[in-house]
Amino acid sequence: MTSGDRVIEVEGLTRRFGTFRAVDSISFHVDRGEVFGFLGANGAGKSTTIRILCGLLAPTSGRGHVLSYDVATEIERVKPHVGYMSQKFSLYPDLTVAENLEFFGGAYRVPRARLAERIPRTVAEAGLAGKERLLAGGLASGFKQRLALGAALLHEPELLFLDEPTAGVAPLARRAFWDLIRGLAARGTTVFVTSHYMDEVESCDRIALMSRGRIVALDTPDGLKRDPRVAAAGFESPTLEDVFVALMGPEARP
Amino acid sequence: MIAMILNVARKELVQTLRDRKMLVILILAPVLQVVLFGFALNLDLTAQPLAVVDSDHTRASREIVRALTGGDGFALAKVADDEASAGRALNDGEASIALVVPRGYGRRLNQGRAELALIVDGSDSNTALRAGQEASQILSAQAIAAQRAKLAAAFASIGRSSDRGIPELDAEPRVFFNPQLRSAIFLVPGVLALVLLVITMMLTAMGLTREKEMGTLEQIMVTPIRPVELMLGKTLPFAALGLLDLGVALSVSVVVFDLPVRGSLVAVYGVTLLYLMTTLGLGLFISTVSATQQQAMLTAFFIMLPALLLSGHIFPIANMPEPVQWLTQVNPLRHYIEIVRGVLVKGASLEDLWRQTASLAAIGVIVLAGASLRFQKRIA
Amino acid sequence: MIRRIALLAAKETRHILRDFRTVYLALGIPLVLLLLFGYALSMDIDDIPTLVVDGDRTSASRDVVSAFERTGFFELVGRADNAAAAEGAFRSGEAKVVIVIPPGLGRALARGEAARIQILADGTDANTAAIAVGYGAALAQRRTMDLTVDALSRLGVPAAKAPRVAIDVRSRNWFNPTLESRWYMVPGLIAVIMAMMSALLMSLTVAREWERGTMEQLLVTPVRPAEIVIGKLVPYFVIGLLQLALITAAGAALFGVPLRGSVPSLFAISGVFLVGALGQGLLVSIATRQQQLAMQVALLTSMLPALLLSGFMSPIASMPVVVQHITRIVPARYFLVVLRDLFLKGSPLSAMWPEIAALAIFAVLMLVACASRFKTRMDA
Does the pTM of the predicted model rise above 0.90? Predict the structure, then answer.
């Protein structure tokens, strides 16, 4: 992991909706091959941050660079190298598994020959072999999740944005999902993931804690546990949950 | 129960009105519809462009041209040299009707019999027919006037004064309720029916289907909300919006088109409630057969168009084939429009219009009962 | 770029085919309208329910009544005792015209005096009232003429020698000799249907993706707005041409409507119009993110103008001047002219270049507006 290779670089990034600051002057960076977690309660600003980095929202002020492109002005050049999976696993419910994959593969300009190999592999990895002709809308949510991830990976992106990817999915499936993510990172893909599940983010390389639009703490999981504020709050051998409570206060309970 | 209904109703209103533009459109739509229908659908014939070929150039020929262009119906658009050139004017759309006065017209008229030709642009035959009829009427009136002059002269020549001895029949017109013959008055009730239909049938159907489309219907079904509460909570807001829009449309009609309000507004609103029973019922029904909002909208449209066209709003029912006329008896728009026309313009009471009121009520009860049963079965 | 457009078009086509109701309705609604307009709807006015108050009951008064009946316009539905019953009859809708003949009519006419009947008309239906009054006046004049000729002959001037004035009006219908009103109706209907259906079908497509969240997923891909716009238009363009073929064929089969122009011209011009009309619907969808709102806006900006301001329902020349100017930005107006020319006059394309240019400009404008208004940001 070359520390000089910063895949995401954010400085003073702010996003306002009217007078409400959803993201309030945050700064951080993500290195290549990291699994970087964004943790926080609902409404903390995690999804807004991801959307800015994907080009879905424009920043109000501050700077953000993804793969050294400016998110405010050069976002179109970022898109071919980035994959995104939203909380809603937004697939077309009235298209089949295969059709969804073909479509998104084509949208990312994956060459046809390549796509012809990738799709069956993606289908198999998602456990959907034999189900290619089923409509995506009828799948169980665990399968939808894996299909959505597969669609985001068809073009073998350098960077993957996952927004609450395990929301509403059974614990066993969640664990399997994180195995997948770790595998991706081992192969060099950078993963930026948001979540409000403590146990999952345990396996991230670094975690940013977000509350009310601000980053309250940013470190490796162990580093967070050793944060002086945690001890000050009375926790001796803190779990990440304790860290959370200590640093974000009772109102931030996820 | 009431609290639950209000809860659902509030959610529905919030979802529907989330975009501020929706509120704007809801107020603007009836205004635009009233204005458009009232001004654009002028069913009278005015200022039809007329081309004239006058090969006679006598006082008689000039008189005949003046007779045609003197009123509102025709405006002189082109003086052509010959029939071919008049034909070209028709071709280019410069004129929609041409009058050809042959040479010698004045002389032959004096002798008792003369000929004129009217050429109409048949590619627009509705207008052509009526323009032709109106022009013929004007020309006949001219002929009759000339004839009367001659007859008076004939009487005088026999030594009798023309004031005594010639019988004369006169037809005195008296137009009730709308002496200025403004066609907007005829059209407004239909627009009211349309406005209500769009809001209470189309929007309701879409709103009900949205739940299904979003996948949140399941979520609702696991709560203690009862089917009837869901149904009422989702239809009543649109009924309220519909009544609001009715008020807006009525106000605009009164202000812009001087719509008379001779009867009881209470009666109008009362009858509107009966009408809404059918429209809301149809909205409910449509939502039970649609999986997406697009389907709901298209299905509603499919019902709405024939209902509007076969309601007597623009096209007279008396002119439709018999079987179709019978069909219109189950069209709530037909009865609603007749009642509103009667009450507002003629000052009729619901007693005068008991047949239409009863029909509307019957249709409403049947449709609403059937649809709500079906809806609740689907939900439960 | 082409590959992505093809991809998007294929996806859009799948959406349509998976929801077959859309296709049924896209083809069914035009057919229903064709049948309605062809068989059931017409603006002709006939068989108006009429009451007679005959206070005279002589052969003279009966002659008057039968003269009215013979026009075919008045249908006698009953007799009343006095004129006061008229208002009630109008209110209940029982009659639209009441003819009042005073006592002593026969005697007065026989004595060579003046007599007066009354034509009471329900002004709510201004059109009918105007025609009734017109007929009344014409019939009265004619009666007077006949009575005068009789009186003259009794004075010794034989009927044959009585001075007559007649103006013969030859009505020739250019382009549509039989004035078959359906011949003009079908081209008009094509324009109206294509305008309405385009707006209807396109208006929800983008709004729906926003509501469902799939638009987000689409926007993070490298797909460009122009590709999305064109990709969405393609399948609906095909549907539009199918509708054209359907109505043209049905119009020819059912009503014998001729297509005097060339078929390629028809499809070419319709294609240009379609791009503009579909683009307009798509623009509505892009500008609104809620399906209910999109539907309302499409109704107001595409469907109503196409129906009311295109010249289909009523001639543009009869509209108030302000409204006439507004019709200039309604593309259906130009398309209507082109279609009527193509079907009935067989004009070559070169003769219609101003209208074609207008349609082409509109199409380009809409495409540009769609591509530029299509924001790739969620909050734009």
Answer: no
